[in-house]
């Protein structure tokens, strides 16, 4: 088995769209509380959680979340967009949005949690073999299992495989294949001059449901900015081909067009594309008081100047 500590933090919530997941979630909090008590460290931070979408797009998803939570007696509020905005002014949305607020939600410091689990396991008698991938497993006639690794062959009565993306590397040796796939994801941390408004005390975790992707965000934790990403939206890769480099495909989404514009400018001195908004004398460069602003959830609408929202 291989373990990689590459997730800095991840969200924790009671809200899921399917009753099979939702009914298990209350016990996840009990398990985390037990780990925190034994370790003497805080791993889970409650921030509240928000799900939202445009009413004409994915309201059926919000309905599914509400139904699953109601069936499991989990507290939540079904809010209009304006009501959510009143609660969290960071979200520049109106009543064309359908939202759910769930007060018991937050984030887990995943890197610290992984380390704590390993240390507590050792304290309770477990042997942790690092840098020791499973090469194959073998079932013996007596029902026991052999686990082959670079550090030796181990025999056990029961084997629990939690290999994640490497699941088929392990199970393939006994002819078992699980249809899973791996995607390479990329997140962004947005810095802000309004630091206090995006701390765990004031800013919830959130998921925006669109027809193509689910976008998610979290408050500042262990980094200088709010984390935003797309859930399972990256290219399909394998555990052997994935890497930790920035996604060049996403970085260069406009590279071909920009190359064409620049070549036209170099050869003809002009381009057929309207690039007036990107001139060197634009306000963002010439006005020392200009404030860059990112509005979440506007769907392309420009907010009014009366808005009291904080700016990333």
UniProtKB/TrEMBL annotation:
Domain FAD dependent oxidoreductase: from-to ranges: 18-254
Cofactors named for this entry: FAD
GO molecular function: flavin adenine dinucleotide binding; sarcosine oxidase activity
Keywords: FAD, Flavoprotein, Oxidoreductase
Organism: Mytilus galloprovincialis
InterPro entries associated with the record: FAD-dep_OxRdtase, FAD/NAD-bd_sf, MTOX
Protein name: Sarcosine oxidase / L-pipecolate oxidase
EC number from the UniProt entry: 1.5.3.1
Family: Belongs to the MSOX/MTOX family.
Pfam families reported in the protein's UniProt record: DAO (PF01266)
Matches recorded under SUPFAM superfamilies: FAD/NAD(P)-binding domain
């Amino acid at each position: 088995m291989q373990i990689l500590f590459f997730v800095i933090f991840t969200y924790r919530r009671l809200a899921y769209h399917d009753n099979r997941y939702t009914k298990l979630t209350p016990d996840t909090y009990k398990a985390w509380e037990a780990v925190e008590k034994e370790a003497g460290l805080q791993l889970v931070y409650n921030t509240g959680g928000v799900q939202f979408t445009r009413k004409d797009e994915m309201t059926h998803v919000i309905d599914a979340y509400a139904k699953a939570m109601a069936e499991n007696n989990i507290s939540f509020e079904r809010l209009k967009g304006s009501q959510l905005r009143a609660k969290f002014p960071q979200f520049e949305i109106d009543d064309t949005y359908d939202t759910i607020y769930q007060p018991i939600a937050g984030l887990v410091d995943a890197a610290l949690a992984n380390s704590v689990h390993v240390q507590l396991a050792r304290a309770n008698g477990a042997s942790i073999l690092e840098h020791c991938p499973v090469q194959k497993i073998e079932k013996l006639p007596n029902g026991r299992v052999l686990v082959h690794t670079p550090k030796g062959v181990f025999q056990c009565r029961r084997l629990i495989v939690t290999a994640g993306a490497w699941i088929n590397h392990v199970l393939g040796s006994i002819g078992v294949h699980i249809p899973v796939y791996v995607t390479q994801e990329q997140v962004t941390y947005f810095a802000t001059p309004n630091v206090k408004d995006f701390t765990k005390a004031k800013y919830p975790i959130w998921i925006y449901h669109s027809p193509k992707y689910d976008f998610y965000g979290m408050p500042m934790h262990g980094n200088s900015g709010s984390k935003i990403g797309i859930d399972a939206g990256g290219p399909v890769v394998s555990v052997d081909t994935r890497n930790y480099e920035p996604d060049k495909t996403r970085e260069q989404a406009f590279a071909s067009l920009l190359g064409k514009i620049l070549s036209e400018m170099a050869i003809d001195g002009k381009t057929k594309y309207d690039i007036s908004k990107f001139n060197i004398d634009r306000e963002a460069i010439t006005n020392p008081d200009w404030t860059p602003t990112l509005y979440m959830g506007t769907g392309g609408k420009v907010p009014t100047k009366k808005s009291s929202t904080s700016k990333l």
